[in-house]
Write a structure and sequence with these properties.
alpha/beta; 6-stranded mixed beta sheet; 9 helices; globular
Length: about 325
């Protein structure tokens, strides 16, 4: 057997080259200055459908983005095959800074927040007046998420032929939230669609609501050429609907520069990530009164300076009540 000493000078010894010697790595990443701009329309199992100019392009996230993920509504930069032809794939190499973010957690004990939609201007909270019954706690939570993420809220009340809207609207009157009331007959005739479109023109609007309230039916009426999966039904025993939208999808609103984003029906809306100091910014008449609040004030405790601010006549007491009701929604479930 051939043996070699420690200081052998044999030149026929085979050595295995290390990876670092044959594949040098660098932290310098390409700038992709020629990347094209696009809009993420939907995400499905790691594949992103994007609109690049007038073409629909399939893409995947580039490795250099790391854990950063693109969501519906994101403005992105793409490289690679941008032809939009079948079986082609581009790469998303940059995600532009977001102007707004709609986020939620699975429940209030879950610290992991999920970004649902990016860059939307407003959040349309769709709820039925009956069949299924309204869930004000869920509406409150959606409003908190909208205020926290920088979206303007819009209430869309459906099925007014089954129940009057006044009682529900009274809960939100002091918040000055715009609203639209629709009935099934008006949806079929198109008159309700015209009223809803007035609130959407020129804006990117995310639609959210629990299953069975008619959200996807309304979106189908707004964008008939892009009809979603067939609508579901409400379970007569549980009063809950079947999920008919399985992924968020951005759809252009014909005749305007507005967009509609249909999101999956929600059964809960966790607010673990919400900071009360961000919600107060949606109440400009109350925000100055927080200057005397103690650090990390919940705005619903004896030391809160808002009580004195309102008592001095700077704001309507009903507005403070509405703020505290919304903030309290972070601490209770929708069924409470």
């Amino acid at each position: 057997m051939r043996r070699y000493g420690k200081h052998t000078d044999e030149d026929d010894i085979r050595t295995r080259p290390g990876r670092r010697n044959t594949r040098p790595r660098t932290n310098i990443r390409p700038k992709h200055e020629d990347a094209a701009e696009g809009l993420v329309l939907t995400v499905d199992r790691g594949r992103l459908t994007c609109l690049v100019e007038d073409r629909v392009v399939m893409a995947m996230k580039a490795r250099e983005l790391g854990r950063k993920a693109a969501v519906v509504g994101d403005r992105v930069a793409l490289v690679g095959d941008l032809s939009g032809r079948k079986d082609t794939l581009a790469r998303i190499v940059r995600i532009a800074e977001r102007t707004s973010v709609l986020r939620r957690t699975a429940d209030d004990d879950d610290p992991y927040e999920r970004v649902v939609v990016a860059n939307a201007d407003q959040l349309a909270v769709v709820t039925a007046l009956a069949d299924p019954e309204p869930r004000p706690r869920l509406i409150d939570r959606c409003l908190v998420a909208a205020y926290d993420g920088g979206l303007e809220p819009l209430l869309v009340l459906t099925k007014s032929d089954l129940a009057p809207p006044e009682k529900l609207l009274e809960l939100y009157g002091d918040l000055d939230i715009p609203y639209v009331v629709t009935s099934r007959e008006e949806l079929e005739s198109g008159t309700a669609v015209a009223r809803v479109r007035e609130q959407l023109d020129g804006k990117i609007t995310a639609f959210v609501g629990h299953s069975g309230v008619g959200k996807t039916t309304l979106v189908n009426a707004l964008v008939p050429e892009e009809r979603r999966r067939s609508t579901g039904h409400v379970n007569a025993v549980t009063g809950r609907g079947r999920h008919t939208t399985t992924s968020a999808l951005a759809l252009p609103l014909a005749g305007t520069d507005g967009w509609v984003i249909d999101t999956p029906g929600v059964r809960s809306f966790g607010l673990h990530h919400v900071d009360p100091s961000r919600v107060i910014k949606a109440f400009p008449d109350l925000e100055p009164g927080t200057e005397g609040c103690p650090r990390a004030c919940s705005h619903d405790e004896p030391e809160c300076a808002l009580d004195a601010w309102v008592a001095a006549g700077h704001a309507d007491p009903a507005r403070l009540y509405s703020l505290r009701r919304l903030l309290a929604a972070r601490e209770r479930t929708e069924g409470d």
